Amino acid sequence: MAKTSKVITSLFPGGLCKEENMKNVAMATFGFFSSWNLIKPKPKCFLLIASAKNPHNLDMVNGKNINGISVGESPFTKNTELLIKENAPDKQGHASLIGRFMEDRHVYRQTFIIRSYEIGPDKTATMETLMNLLQETALNHVTSSGLAGNGFGATREMSLRKLMWVVTRINVQVERYSCWGDIVEIDTWVDAAGKNAMRRDWIIRDYNTREIITRATSTWVIMNHETRRLTKIPEQVRQEVVPFYLKRIAIAEEKNDIQKIDKLTDGNAERIRSGLEPTWSDIDANQHVNNVKYIGWILESVQMDVLEDYNLTSMTLEYRRECRQSNLLESLTSSTANVTEDSNNNSSNRKADLEYTHLLRMQDDKAEIVRARTEWQSKEKHNLSSE
Hints:
Number of strands: 15
Number of helices: 11
């Protein structure tokens, strides 16, 4: 038993999330993976459904699908088989993409477990993790809606015209970061943003407490895949997406970061990090650097003490141009007060301790790729307010 305890201790390093260590050790002793103790089935029948391809891969617990598949209460009854059929994918290859539509198919919902490789040095999910989950949910929303063409998130009419969606602006506001093994539930929906753009919003909840821990909003436009030029939304495409529009906002107007982000230059930047080079793995299916990759490069020019002692509570990105693998990049950062005297972007309503302005640009010709603004809150202060 002593030998077993040593092995278990090595599997669950100290300082995870509150008292999860002891619970994880107890679960591991009985042969369960650590995060299953976060799923608390009701004391009714216990239904387990394994993957057809891998009978040892647990895909459903008491009617709750996990790892990217929607969850919902489902005690084992004679209606269970019907429930499974209703949530079954149209195509076997899309099994891992299926979530659940809510509110007359206007809201799409998925759940995810935070993996060990999705956490940072403080053992919580990173901003990159959240952005990847938001992007994954958005793509699966399109796929599950029946609108998907042969493009990366494009509808059928868009695919016929060689068009694709590109994000121009996104604001993510984090109340609390999840820990390794936590289950999160993500809702997403879309609405019009003017005549030729679409707004997509998200909220992320802690699955167990139902607490909303992250809110995000974004603006998307259409680009021609071959010419790489922006274009108006064709009427045929508009007719595809309008039935899914929902008049709802994830971030209240008084808390939304809506102000234009000022440009950084060599003259007003406080820190510059050069020599950032995209790799082949950074390129996505649209043949350019995936927008989530920019976050890590932006943070390369942030002081280490800020990264260690503060939580990134809000990030706004304004995308200016594409980036390819052959480009060499520079990351610039400065406190926002050093860049502009007018910081009326509702940051006071979000109670930020620090605010920075960033720029990611080409190293050779200084062409802008993305402007960004970040807000940070002291980890010590944030932890006290959470208690």
